[in-house]
Specification:
Low-confidence stretches: 169-173, 327-332, 351-378
Structural class: alpha/beta
Strand order of the largest sheet: 2-3-4-5-6-1-7
Distance between the termini: 47 Å
Order of helices and strands: EEHHHEEEHEHEEHEHEHEEHEHHEEE
Oligomer: single chain
Strand content: 15-25%
Shape: elongated
Helix content: 25-40%
Largest sheet: 7 strands, mixed
Length: 378
């Protein structure tokens, strides 16, 4: 997979602007969505950021995101056009004397109508109503081409610029997995190939067998470059997975050799461990101890297979299931009366035509979603 060089621009305002932007049309409303639900936020975040590869909030667990959204100093303001959601702005007031514009954007169908300029000024005025000493944001070359010029025209001044490497923008990319192989193993083995054959984008770097620190540096570099949703570590690779900074990515560990390598002795919530009780290389008891040390539920340790390699059909299937379990179900909720037909509400959130194997039931009474659209039972 190709990687883009991305330039990130940090901009700030140190005093309020006296700029006035007239509304480009009638029917505009901005609603303060207080304590938004995680499904609501994800639907809005994805609708706005999909074309520009927004991913920070996608990588967060529901629990971590709920903690942020539940803070009254995080404000979500949703722009509506004739009752339809058109975009949103997210303000972070948690730091004394400053406010960050964390997210800002419009849904694709509302771009190019002059709404962005008006909504940005509305957001600026809202931020300065709290009388901070500084209002700031960052944008990058993967955002809409008009984003940086519009911020500058609105009065933001650049104070920092940096370069980073990211996956290119794209819609509905395969979920990526960083697979860290075991000692004296090589990339392209049975397990990473199995995941790749099941539709995952697998990053499978060659790891130094003799120098753990060098292998750790390689693993961290590949994680930072690709930002995978899941890290799978096998044996020594499991120890590497535990020792890298994996952010919000979920861990799937296969017979992790945490006693043999590294300094980390616990794993984060949500980790899944697969181990064979017949393993004659890494004792099954090590994984039982790891679960206990980490405060994980007993269900986090899955007993499977007949040896250390876990390369037979049953453990491969269990590994795949563990990875699939990290995927969040698609959910949405309506908390207010909206002047739209049920199928139009659903289509704003689910592009079901893109999910050829999607079969599910929606929360709208008497409705069913299929891959060719939403149908209503009569």
């Amino acid at each position: 997979m190709s990687i883009n060089q991305v330039t990130v621009y940090h901009l700030e305002m140190l005093a309020p602007s006296d700029r006035f932007v007239p509304a480009p049309r009638e029917g505009l409303t901005v609603l303060h969505v207080q304590a938004p639900s995680v499904p609501y936020y994800r639907s809005l975040y994805n609708a706005v950021g999909e074309d520009f590869h927004w991913r920070d909030r996608r990588m967060m667990s529901d629990e971590a995101l709920a903690a942020i959204l539940g803070d009254s100093r995080i404000e979500l303001h949703a722009l509506h056009v004739d009752g339809a959601v058109a975009g949103f702005a997210e303000l972070d007031r948690r730091q004394p004397d400053e406010i960050q514009l964390v997210q800002f954007g419009l849904i694709r169908d509302f771009i190019g109508q002059g709404l962005g300029k008006w909504f940005l000024q509305w957001t600026i005025d809202k931020a300065w109503s709290y009388e901070p000493k500084r209002f700031w944001l960052h944008t990058c070359t993967q955002d809409h081409a008009a984003a940086l010029p519009n911020y500058r025209k609105a009065g933001f001044v650049q104070f920092k610029q940096e370069s980073t490497r990211r996956e290119p923008p794209g819609r509905f990319q395969a979920m990526s997995i960083l697979f860290l192989h075991g000692w004296r193993s090589i990339p392209g083995g049975v397990k990473p190939t199995f995941l790749k054959d099941h539709g995952y984008q697998v990053i499978n770097p060659a790891l130094d067998d003799e120098d753990f620190d060098r292998a750790l540096a390689t693993a961290q570099e590949d994680f930072d470059q690709h930002m995978p949703a899941i890290v799978v570590g096998s044996s020594r690779g499991g120890a590497l997975a535990m020792n890298i900074d994996s952010g919000e990515a979920r861990l799937v560990l296969l017979c992790p050799a945490w006693r043999n390598w590294g300094t980390v002795k616990t794993v984060k919530p949500g980790a899944v461990i697969l181990h064979s009780r017949a393993d004659d290389v890494i004792p099954f008891a090590d994984s039982e101890e790891l679960v206990g040390n980490s405060g994980l539920p007993p269900s986090a340790l899955i007993e499977v297979g007949h040896d250390h390699r876990l390369a037979d059909p049953a453990p491969l299937a269990a590994m795949l299931k563990a990875c699939q379990s990290q995927m969040k179900p698609i959910t949405f909720a309506c908390t207010d009366t909206i002047p739209l037909a049920p199928q139009d509400i659903a289509r704003q959130i689910l592009d079901v035509a893109k999910w050829s194997d999607f079969r599910g039931y929606g929360p709208i009474p008497g409705s069913r979603c299929f891959s060719d659209g939403l149908s209503l039972d009569t």
